[in-house]
Amino acid sequence: MNENVETVRCLIIGSGPAGYTAAIYAARADLKPVIYQGMQPGGQLTITTEVDNFPGYPKGITGPEMMEEFKQQAERFGTEIRFGVVTEVDFSNRPFKVKADDGRTILAETVIIATGASAKWLGLESERKFMGMGVSGCATCDGFFYRGQEVAIVGGGDTAAEEATYLAKLCKKVYMIHRRGELRASKAMQHKVLNTANIEMVWDSAPEEVLGDQGGVTGVRVRNVKTGESRDIRVMGVFVAIGHKPNTELFQGQLELDEMSYIKTKPGTTQTSSDGVFAAGDVQDHHYRQAVTAAGTGCMAAIEAERFLTS
Ligand code: NDP
Question: What domains can you pick out in the chain, each with its CATH number?
Fold first, then answer.
């Protein structure tokens, strides 16, 4: 057999809470799991600050630290963790054929997909133009660069609310631009945002254009969706926090996806439309999207993979 082809009992794609939890369970069940970490090792939690709602951390923990602990726990039981990206899958026959960007071809007896979701963008030409020059999708990563300045954040969900309060601690002023007249964020987060003195709500407004010059962003033009009027807000940074889309491009045509492109699983399980392929975490959940629920479904996927192999 070609030396670049190997057989794996349980292949895990993705390294957020779902992927690492699946790895912990699969390794302890002696499935000798191999995990491909993907483009963003540790997943979305590596770009957040404090995590205060994951049980077991009474004092809170930072996202990157928590994911490092998940990783170490997976390694402790013998998971092989690979820095790399899966580029091709063929779920039509078992073992499943999977290719990765390290040149390997893997014949996997079971696959657990935990590729998560990625941040959405507004889709403006000017947003793309100033990406990394004042436009950011991560306040925790980039907020530091805007200390003492005025910035804007777009969105009205928990992510936008959380990032707005984070930015408000660093920046002189934060404009929170939301397309409706009320926030989608949880009541607790709404309360926090609306009671932070240096956050100014820009209601019923959609960004039309990110303004800037060679030096980067200088402002944002917003249109009031009710009155149709536009106005320019002077800011040095524009943070976009308008939700996520599942990372399922690789699985189009291979697995059943729902109308929003999330992987469909049989209710109450992590089984996908292909026997032996399981999906856990945000890639199959647009409802809860929490680290703890992702970890829970990662555990389910590993148990289901083990039962599949022994049945
Ligand atoms: P959400 O989908 O909840 O919110 C997205 C926000 O962006 C909405 O307010 C939406 O407006 C707005 N939006 C979407 N598309 C556009 C667009 N094209 N232009 C302008 N605005 C747009 O995403 P989040 O990332 O905020 O949250 C995802 C999930 O994660 C939620 O379930 C949330 O509760 C959870 N979460 C929990 C946290 C915690 O518990 N600590 C922290 C962060 C997230 P509209 O309201 O009009 O639809």
Answer: 5-118+244-310 (3.50.50.60), 121-240 (3.50.50.60)
